[in-house]
Predict the 3D structure of the following.
Amino acid sequence: MTAAGESLAEPGAGVASVSQPSRDERSARTRGDWAAANGQLRTILESLFDDIARNVRPAEGAQLPTSENPRALLAEIGFLATDRNEWTQDGKNYINGVFKMLHTEGSHPGLSDEDHSTFRLHLVLITTRTFLRRLRFGR
């Protein structure tokens, strides 16, 4: 399991739906299927924010219709910092930038090499670790 998957499996992490995409990403990476690995990275990150929203605001988080709504909720309650440009209303922020970098041409951006896929993986690992630590330990 990747470092992200191991962090997500820790007791009390509060995020369960990330485990399967993390295993799928690892399996694809092991096979050298970089496009499939890349495709799972966005799912991992979307699931992370969905689960965090459901963890900190169970009633509201469970009823949000799109993947961007949990992120907006997390910004609204101060989990995502607007003063550090983690989230802004104009969409020019770290979180949206990460999603754009992960999939510039949709969920499977076509052929990718190992270096580019590894860059994307590290971006997701750093982002995941940052927000899991915030969830676990607070600001």
